Amino acid sequence: MERTMTYSHQGSLSHILRTFALSLLISFVGMLVGAMIVPPSIIPLFIVVELVMIVAAIIFRMRGKNIGYGFLYAFTAISGVTMYPVIMAYGSMIGANLVSGAFLATAVIFGGLAWYAARSEKDFSFLGGFLFAATIGLILMGVLSLFVNFGSTLNLLLSVGGILIFSGWVLYDVAQYREGVAAEEVPLAAMNLYLDFINLFLYILRFIASIVGISRD
């Protein structure tokens, strides 16, 4: 059914973005918890739970159901816990300043693309099929990288691809939400934007690490 402007203010794009921003804050709190409380030995358990929750959200969406705010905030908190060792690994590899720079770059890119998609009248729905297939390809390459050393150059190319793909997801998702959604769909919409942001951040970190790796070779 075509979207109209009949949705309540509760389901507006601004409300989705506020929920997304709160999700990022909760993720940051999760990182602090991961740093101070969670033993490294049980981080894999949190990763499994995170993946299960992503799959559950996908299944809910396919069945026409929605996730709640509790699900969203629990997911982002767990995501923050699992992000901590990743951030620390990149920090030791490229330095804390470059990690901070990567986060700032992510915020600027995400914000710019979100602003453009929200203000533009362009329809980005044509990107959906390509982005889905490309994301599956990235996941498969990520699994393969666990067993095969790609090297700095191939990692650089994959990171550029990841940046472009998740930049595309930002355009696609924000354009889908710019007319608003039903109030009960806000948590899932915010979760999609959260995943766009986090994956964009991770691929920017990977890009910087690849540049540093090439310069050291």
Defining traits:
217 residues; globular
Category by helix and strand content: mainly alpha
- Tally of helical runs: 7
Question: Biggest sheet, open or closed, and with what strands and sense?
Answer: none
Number of E strands: 0
The helical percent reads over 70%
What features would you describe in this structure?
Belongs to the BI1 family. Keywords: Membrane, Transmembrane, Transmembrane helix. InterPro entries: Bax_inhibitor_1-related. It is a multi-pass membrane protein. With 217 residues, this protein is an all-alpha fold. It has one domain (9-216). It contains 7 helices and no strands.
Furnish the topology, listing elements before pairings.
Layout: H1 13-36, H2 43-62, H3 69-94, H4 96-119, H5 128-145, H6 151-177, H7 186-216
Helix pairs in contact: 1-3, 1-7, 2-3, 3-4, 3-7, 4-6, 4-7, 5-6, 6-7
Quick summary of this structure?
It holds the Pfam family Bax1-I. It is a multi-pass membrane protein. This protein has 217 residues and is mainly α.
